[in-house]
Structures are given as structure tokens and as C-alpha cells.
Amino acid sequence: MKVLAPSNKPRTDRIIILGSTGSIGVNTIEVVEHLNRLGSRRFEIVGLAAGTRLDELAAQAHALGVSHVASPDPGAKEHLSDLVENVHVGADAAVEMLHQIARPGDLVIGAIVGAAGIKPSIAALELGCDLALANKESLVAAGPLVLAAAERSGAKIIPVDSEHSAVFQCLHAGRQDREIAKVVLTASGGPFRTWTKDRMRSANVKEALNHPTWSMGSKVTIDSASLMNKGLELIEAHWLFGLGSDRLDAIFHPQSIVHSFVEFTDHAVIAQLSPPDMKLPIQYAISWPDRLPGSASRTDFTQFADLHFESIDRVRFPAIAMALEVIDQPSGAGAIFNAANEVAVAQFLQEKIPFGAIVDTVEATLERITPGEITTLADVLEIDHESRRVAQEILMASSDR
Ligand code: NDP
Ligand code: MG
Predict the structure, then answer these.
(1) Residue to probe by mutation, ligand 1, list 18, 20, 24, most atoms within 8 Å of CB
(2) In a domain, 282, yes or no
(3) pLDDT in tens, 122-159
(4) Which of 64, 120, 334, 339 holds its CA 20 to 30 A away from the CA of 373?
(5) Phi, psi of 148 (to 5 degrees)
């Protein structure tokens, strides 16, 4: 559990946000503003990367006074160069920006959505920056490379995903691997927790985006409805905490108050509780290992007296069993699982395929490709590319029927 080892490298107060215009990115800026208002420590946001929302990126850059921004959109140069000194554009813009500005001990917030976050996550760690990681896809698709980059530089990966932040907090008293019996991730169940498989199959985009407890970007919201999010998170937990599929599980907890728990070998269970608000795990990743007065809402226990848990029906939600199988396979399986899901979710959001086709496509893509171990970035890019091609083919074939 290298991720849990105390850091022996001092942190600077500099923060770089990758995915600044998204849900996690915007929350991060609010948390930093809150922490700066407290006055005990002053954090400086020194770089921002985003995708296509250039007006939002420009407004953020202006308000924060950053001198470096990055976007894959070539139009960003014209759009932002009056406002910002250095505008990095192109497919590797975020990585290029990191190479120019990141210093060892800086904190990089990894909040790009999807496989686009893989290279920036690895680059941040290679440059000796601690990585506050929301972009679970980079661990799922490239776990061995992300961990190796951290190992080489001594930088830390601090989970931002609320479940993994919860586990991270539960394990804090320097717990040993042999003391952990099981890590159980909680899942709200999304909008379809009680729906039948048939009804779920033909759910529309509006229904799938209607998350009962969390407000998040569209991709992770769809993943939450299919439970592919919990599948991705089981694989993420496997890499972060070094646990096999036999010590990982997930359970429904519709109120999203208990963010996950750890069962120890003596059968003690330690959980982390708070209202569903990403500001808490974001703030903890920034202040870690300290705790600072919070910007997230407080827990009113009289409101949450009725905490409910139930096992996940693995027939209605095959993503859980699929993810546990992926963990037992060579590491390339994670890249297949992730890429096929990204392709299917994008098509579902464009209303080209039914909701039920998402999980079916992931399952069929995993059946079609035999995964190998990932040892280089080229391996990840190749398997990601091939999985996208196969997933597209499967979706085309099913739409012809
Ligand atoms: P959003 O869709 O709200 O935001 C995604 C961000 O990534 C945007 O800033 C987007 O820019 C940016 N982006 C997309 N592609 C690129 C690219 N090629 N280069 C640079 N930036 C890019 O997603 P969320 O904030 O909800 O999620 C981000 C990540 O965090 C995901 O991996 C998600 O699974 C994870 N996560 C999110 C949680 C949440 O509460 N939202 C909870 C736990 C994990 P633009 O919008 O300008 O195109
Ligand atoms: Mg989560």
C-alpha cells in the first residue's frame, strides 16, 4: 500500500488543475478559495487545463491570474492569448504545460475525464508532483504505469474519488496490509437501483442523468447508473490499495453518507461518513496529511438516522462481477474495460444506442480481446485503440440487427 506511506517530500503551496472547467475542477477552485480565506496557508493555482469550454477556461484564468493554460483545442490560442501569457494547445497540451511549470512537491489535481487523463497523470508523477486523483480511468487503464511513475519520483497519489478517499482515511493509522480483511465500496445505486433489467435496458439519457445523490459530469453520472462506475472504482481500489478481488466488494447504500468502509481481520469495521459533497475529499487531498476547517457541509445525524445497505444484484448490474474478473486478469484487461465503456457511453449520450448496450458492449469487447500485461505507455495506447475499434464494431453490428 505504497499510496498510504507518509510523504517524505515537502509539498509546495502550488496547485495545477487538470480538468478545471469540470465538476471536480470547479469544486477544487472553490475549496482553494475557502482554504485561502482561512488564512493559515496560501495556495496558489499556477496552471489550468481543460477541453472545449474555452469561455469558462478564460474566465478562470483571468480570475486566478494564471500564466499557463492548456487545451487540446487549437482555437484556444486565439481565444486565450490576450489573457494568458502561455497557451499550450494540441493533444498533449496538458503534458507540455506540466513539463514547463510543474516543480517537485507541487500538487496536480487530476480531474480530466476519461483516458485523456492517462498521460497527464503519469507526467505529473514523473515530475515529482503529488497527484490528487479523480480521473479513475488513468488507474484503471494504466495502473502499473501510474504506480511505477510515483515509485520512481517518490510522489504520492492521493485519492479524490469519494470512496477511495474514505478508505484512505479509514486506513490512516498506519494499518498493515495483513490487517485488512476487506474493503467495501458503497454505491448509491444511481437512478436505476430498483428498476428491472428490462426497464433499465431502454432507459433514456434524461433518466440516466438523473442521479439521486451526486451532481457530477455526464460521463461519471452515466457510469453511476450502469454501475460501471463502481466497476471502475473496484479496479481503482485494486491499484491504489494493492488488494486482490477476494478482498474487494461493493454494496448499495442509497443515502451516500457512508462513503466506504474497511473490515479488519479482527472484524472491526471503520467507515468514513459525511454528506455527499466532493469538497470534502478534494479538500482532504489538498490538506493531507493535515485536516483544516471544512468547506463541505456538516453531517446532521438526526437527518440520517435511517442508513440503509443492501447487496447489489449482480444479474441486473453485471459491471461488478465483470470488474472483479478484470482484476484477476493481466493488467491490459482494465484498458479494455475502460475504453469499451467510454465508446459506449459517448454513443448513449448521443442517443445512438440503448442504455442496456453499454454494459453488453463492454462484456463483448472483453470477450473478443485477450489482454496482456501493460509495461509501456505504447502498450496502453495500443490496447485502448484496439478496444475502441472492437467496441465500435460490436455497436455497429448490433444496430444493423
Ligand atoms: P466533467 O465532465 O464535469 O469535467 C471533465 C473535465 O475534463 C472538464 O474540465 C473537461 O474540459 C476536461 N477535459 C476533457 N477532455 C480533456 C482533454 N483532452 N484535455 C484537457 N481537459 C479535458 O467531469 P467530472 O469533473 O465529473 O469528472 C472528472 C473525473 O473525476 C472523471 O474521471 C470522473 O470519473 C472523476 N470523478 C468525478 C466525481 C464528481 O463528483 N464529479 C466524483 C468522483 C470521480 P471541458 O469541459 O472544457 O471540455
Ligand atoms: Mg466515486
Answers:
(1) 24
(2) no
(3) 999 999 999 999 999 999 999 999 999 999 999 999 99
(4) 120
(5) -65, -35
